[in-house]
Amino acid sequence: MWLFTEFGFYSTVENRDDSETLLVRSRAKRDMDALVDLLPAPPVKGVWFDRTHDYPWRAIVRKADLAVLVSAAVGSIDYDNFKGRLGVTPGFNEGGRLRMMHEVWAAVRVWGDRLLDHAAS
Asked: What is the pLDDT of residues 62-79, one digit of tens each?
């Protein structure tokens, strides 16, 4: 699952060694640190870096803990435009992060428009 939040971008998959935990991955240390700080309990295995993977920043967290964090993030939504919110979120413009988010939005928009075009024909 990909998670785009105000505090970072993550790719999350089940831990192959323990079905009660998740391997949470990120491309940015800042994002992983933010996630760990927001978890209701420490990760099962704290943050580590492995350059051999496309998401080099990693942590193993309990599914229940990530569910609490995601639920809290959903509960705290107080904006009507996610991209607009990111534009005023401190630190979100550094390293091209906001541009990347807009590029993802644009790619999904193109895909959605193609679906609409196909449905209309």
From this structure: 999 999 999 999 999 999
Q: What is the arithmetic mean of pLDDT over 111-119? A: 90
Backbone CA torsion sign across 25, 35, 8, 90: negative
Distance between CA 51 and CA 111 in Å, rounded?
Answer: 31
Work out the number of other CB atoms within 10 angstroms of the CB of residue 20.
Answer: 10
User: What is the C-alpha to C-alpha distance for residues 58 and 49, in angstroms, rounded to an integer?
Assistant: 6
Length of the chain: 121
The full DSSP string for 66-95 is HHHHHHHHHHT---S-HHHHHHHSTTTTGG
Asked if 37 and 21 count as a contact pair (C-beta separation under 8 A), the reply is no
Query: Regarding beta strands 8-15 and 18-26, do their DSSP bridges make them parallel or antiparallel, or are they unpaired?
Result: antiparallel
Nearest CA among 52, 105, 46, 113 for reference residue 97: 105
pLDDT tens digits, 23-63? 999 999 999 999 999 999 999 999 999 999 999 999 999 99
